[in-house]
Amino acid sequence: MISFIINRKILILFFICLILSCQHPTDINIIRNVPIKIAIEKPLSTINCGSNESIENDTSTICDFQVWGNSEGINPDGKVKIYILVQFSDTTSFIIQYPSAQIFDDGTWTAEAIIGDSANPAFHGQEFNILAIADSNETLEHKTVVKSEEISDYPKSQTVGLVVSRKSFLEIISPVSIVKNEIKPDTSNELSFTVQGTSGGLARNSQYRIYVLVSTNSEPIEKWILSYPDGDDPVYSFNRDSCIWTAGARLCYEEEQPVLDRDSLKIIAIASHKPDLIKQIGNRPIADLDDELPRHHFIRSNVACLTVSRSSILEITSQSPLTACEPDTNLTSCFDIEGKTNGLILNSHFKIYACIWQSKWYPFLAYSFDRITKDWKAKIETKKEVFDEDNLKIVAVATLVELEESYFDLDDIPSYSITQEMTATLKRKLVKRIYIGDSPYGIAIIPNHGEAYVTQVGQTDITIIDIYDNEVIGKIEQVGTDLRGISVSLDGLKAYVCDYSEEYIKVINTFNPTDIKQIRAGRNCQNIALTYDQKFAFVIKDDNNKNVSLIDCINKVVMADTTVSAIPNNVAIVPFTYKTYVTINNGNIVVFNDAPNSLNYEMINVEYGSELNGIAIAPDGEKIYACLSSMSAGKVAVIDVANTSLDSFINVGGNPQGIAISPDGLTALVVNTVSKSNTYNNKISAIDLIRNVVIDTIKVENQGAFPQNIAIRSDGKYAYIINKESENITVIRMDLLGK
Prior knowledge:
By secondary structure, the protein is mainly beta. The protein is built from 4 helices and 54 strands. A hairpin with a 5-residue loop joins β23 and β24 (375-381).
């Protein structure tokens, strides 16, 4: 009984299996678990591509090739079919190849595959993948293209990658040359040139046409523009025997983007059989060649470079040193920049700027631009103090962009602008400013030494200046306690210095400055003048005693003192005499005619109630010039020495303090401090002593300088202005005064 039950169960299971086996082929599970192996008989054999002719000069539309492989467990008499799928490297879809593979008894199989058609020809360099897939349900029978996700569950082979190896190519012969020279000189937005190259594989396919694209090198994305987007290419030729082609190219920017000299361009040629390429691209810039011109649609050449050689130039013709504009009255200056340009005459949109670097760039629009002579001019105004021979960095810019008056960066100017840079010096009257320190007061040029000594109020040392390099080169230390006026002998061997706080005149050996003698002269010594023979000196004392002292320089003693009618200010001695003139505060000049025998004096009344300050005598001794500050205006009084009388006045303005006369006697310089309104004047007046008129006015400091004393170099080339409050010396170039 038990045996019958068991046999009965076995019998039932047998019938169930029989029914199932009739519904599903036994080889399905086997096939889906057996991998398909694929191999390529030849790597894209060129023998089977296109016609039977050699394809050395061919770009036929198709290439066919064989694929073979094996798969154990496939029944050649069953429903299983093997298909070849082709996928181009830049796509996600597969193209199904028909017919299906032929399967042999041993499980091996072979199939034909084709790539390319009239719409998408196969050519050199094309990349694609090959895949074999098994289909037992005839689901692929009527499909031509499938997505990768549609075949994810199908048994398939490994993927084999192939690159088409043919002789169809396109090459640009470098260098690219410009042939249309008729547009020089020019900065138009168009540039025409010729591109020449060779090609293999295009000669037998007359449908192909060669086009040239030019890169605009636009930032941040490189863009390409099709030459002759209207299809009208007058230079195009293609010798299909020699395989040499020539194509005209035309770069046509927008109107605001001309093609300039030294612009760098990139050029690429493409070969296309598409008749609608012109409509497809047109004049629209292409940013991505791979996206817009995929390699399986177009044959591409190498990229050639072209540096534009045109006559679009901008030139600064002004030569260094530059000359400051008239009048040269301020530390900040103006000057003209001139230049020529070639290539702007056909483009009226361009503007020319001259720019100066002073911690940042400042642009100045050219006020003159002659498009016939090609000359331009611009006026630059410096924003900071500029002295004679200072290096100036100047740039000329021709651009379509309007430059702001404030700071800009040259790197921000578009590449289609033209720039030229130069370094120049400015020829001007203000040479330099030499820093001295607290309260400089007196200055004296040391003959035959190339040096000047400078004293300072309340200081113990004397500063030494090299008057050829205009630099401080040292100090004479511990000369006194409060040094003021200074006078030097004609031979330059000795310098006499007033020590205001002590009772001494300090005498310095200029060849050995540590050798310092002294003469007791009393307190409050303010200024001093030596006689031509160095035997005597007159000392002015700034005190209520109104003293003037005569010193015997040989014996180093005070010979005599005298009192004048008001506080004395300054002193000068007529050359090669002992006749001495002293300015005082009540508008008079004291004249000592009999020194050193007597300190008796007479008075020249200049202007009652005014204050007389600095005084200088002409080199020929005929005229005396004294600075006079009055309630009306600042003046220089001219005194006739022979008649000991007032000759005339020269109006200078402000509050004249010090005066010096050039060695040739032709020019006087007057320093003006505080004006009538009690504001700082800080100007130097240059006087033509032949005509007694002011010929120039120069500002030595923007504010607070308080110029007080002055000295002129013995060769007459430079003058040195003591600026008491700003603690420096301004150096002035004499040869430019009045020019």
